[in-house]
Design a protein that fits this description.
four-stranded mixed β-sheet; 284 residues; ten-stranded parallel β-sheet; 18 strands; alpha/beta
């Protein structure tokens, strides 16, 4: 197995950096009008159109931002969003995404961030097509579900969801870039205090690049077992660092058995090495 250089890590995370920029661009500034009911999510004039009598036939043309001021009842019949979907509800009293039960496709990426009362992403069970999925900074979130209908996810990024216990993306067969958590220097920094396992990927056949970093309670990488059970393709590269309860020896064994050629596994439970040999930088 070959170890990463800093340059390779930077190159492999470039797509995630673009996704993070998308999220930052969508976050409203003070005084900015952004809710769907106000006619646009990023300053553009977007409309919802319907066809026929199908209650789920609504099409939102453009980027949709669901903000604290958004009247979610106006979103109930939307079956398609042609652009990106950003869910940024802050203190709004919404615990799940059932108002998106009709949603079937998103032309761009999905970002769910800074939702103070969101407990579960359950709701969009009909969703079968979207780009990347980023879920971060949701202090009450316990379950990620409802997005597993899409067989292919471009990028998956989860971090800073302190109560998150369960990730269920059973429909996903291929993931381009998976990043679960993050670390800062030699410290775990995922703020995933309740996430012990990554087992909700029962149909997964392949992940191109894996980053699992700084998850404070993680003890199992079940998605690797799913790839084996489904006769899938091993990751091209894997970085597993600074997960204090995840067995270093077990991870090395799993990746070796899969035949992953490019690896960086350090700072996990049972690791023996110099602290300065396992340093990571947020956003690298």
């Amino acid at each position: 197995m070959e170890h990463f250089t800093v340059a390779r890590v930077t190159k492999l995370t470039s797509r995630l950096s673009c996704l993070a920029i998308f999220v930052a661009a969508c976050i409203p500034t003070k005084g900015e009008s952004t809710s769907a009911s106000q006619g646009g999510s990023t300053g553009n004039t977007s409309t919802v159109s319907t066809t026929g009598t199908d209650v789920c036939s609504g099409v939102y043309d453009g980027d949709l931002l669901v903000a604290e001021s958004t009247d979610i009842d106006t979103l109930v019949g939307i079956g398609s969003v042609t652009g990106n979907l950003q869910i940024y509800m802050k203190g709004k009293e919404v615990e799940d995404l059932s108002f998106l039960a009709c949603l079937q496709s998103v032309g761009g990426d999905i970002a769910i961030s800074r939702n103070d009362n969101l407990v579960s992403t359950a709701g969009p069970t009909m969703l079968s097509s979207y780009g990347s999925l980023m879920i971060s900074r949701n202090p009450q979130l316990r379950e990620v579900s409802g997005f597993g209908g899409s067989p292919k996810i471009a990028d998956l990024w989860l971090y800073d969801n302190p109560l998150l216990e369960n990730v269920q993306l059973a429909g996903a067969e291929e993931i381009g870039l998976m990043r679960i958590g993050q670390c800062n220097g030699d410290k775990p920094w995922a703020h995933h205090l309740a996430l012990e396992a990554l087992e909700g990927f029962s149909n997964l056949k392949g992940v191109d690049t894996v980053f699992v970093e700084g998850n404070e309670s993680l003890v199992s990488l079940g998605f690797l077992e799913s790839i084996v059970e489904n006769g899938g393709t091993p990751p091209r590269a894997a970085v597993v660092r600074r997960n204090p309860k995840l067995s270093q020896a077990e991870v090395v064994s799993q990746l070796s058995a899969l035949g992953v050629e490019i690896v960086d596994v350090c700072g996990n439970a049972g690791w023996i090495g110099e602290e300065d040999e396992c340093i990571c930088i947020i956003g690298e």
